[in-house]
Structures are given as C-alpha cells and as structure tokens.
Hints:
α2 packs across α3 (34-41), α2 packs across α4 and α3 crosses α4 (45-57). By secondary structure, this protein is α+β, with helices and mostly antiparallel strands. It has helices at 10-17, 19-27, 34-41, 45-57, 107-131, 149-170; strands at 2-7, 32-33, 61-69, 72-79, 81-86.
Amino acid sequence: MQEIAVIAEPEAARSALDPVRARLLAALAEPASAATAAKKVGLSRQKANYHLHELEQHGLVELVEERRRGNMLERVLRASALSFVISPAALAELAPDPGRSPDQVSARWLLALAARLLREVGELVRGARAAGKPLATFAVDGEVRFASAADRAAFAEELGLALRGLVAKYHDTEAPGGREHRLVIALHPSLKKPEPSSPTTSEEQ
C-alpha cells in the first residue's frame, strides 16, 4: 500500500470525491471484506459491493486475497493508499498555468505554482513506482514571524539573492548526464489557529 496516491484521471477523481466511496476508502485503510466495510459505513452489502467495484475499477481499491467461506468466495480488499490527493491534471483545461501571468507577489500565481508542483510530482511518483526506483526530492517546511511588513520584504529580497547565488553556482548546462530540477520557494501567511475555548465556570452555568 502506498502512503499517498495522486489521482490524475477525471473519472477516478469523481469516484473518490463521492461521499459514500470516500467513507469506504477510509474504512479500507486496513484489509476487510465487503461485508465488514459495509457495516463500518452503514451500507447494505449489495450497495457496498457496487461502490467497491467502481473504486476497484479506478485503482483506488485493490484485492488482497480471496478466501472460501462455505459455498461463497469472499474477497478481501483494501485501499490502494492511506491518503489520496487529486492532481490538477484531473481538471484538464481548467488547471491553472503558472506561465500565464508570472507575478512573485500574487497569491493566484502561488496557487498555480502549487498546482503544477502537485501535478508534476504526482507524475514522477507514479513513474518511479512503476519503474521500482526511488525518487530524489527535497523539501523544507517552517514558520518565521516577522516584526513588520518591511522585515518581510527584506527577508524575501535576501532569500532571492541567496537563491540566485546558489543557482548560479550549481546550474550546469553543459554537464553530460545532468538532469534539470524544479525549484519552488513559497512564502505566505500562516493560517490562524483557533482560539481555545475557555472552560465554563459554575457562575456562568
């Protein structure tokens, strides 16, 4: 089972987004029969079998084993991944294009870059998995608190200068056997964490 699978086909995305099928996928994080999965999500076995067949057709569910139960052959299934994300490739012509209007300070362009990143890495993961080879990637995730908008702008300028220096140092257009890599750096405000609710005192009750 994969840890994360990227869904790129429109029909597979439509199937995974169905609320009932999404619950079945969650129920099949561990192998289970159709009857067991149906019980977990509150469906009849017949309805569960219908939805499971559709999920299996799109590679979202896979067969683990078949076992004999009296006169019946019971199929044990599991989700093909623990988690799923839908690639912008599933949207075809509607997918954003970062080359359309590049703007370093535009949130729309940042979203377009993120969409391209998801699409391209999804394709690379599928190709590496099919070839049985590892995929070399690197990512950094962190938070920084700026005292002012001026400090944020200065940070972005210094970061850009440092990156341009690193790229100039290591970028080699002539190296035989070299391979191009995509570099994406993003900076955006963190989402505000919800305020913890204060306990109700006896006087407030």
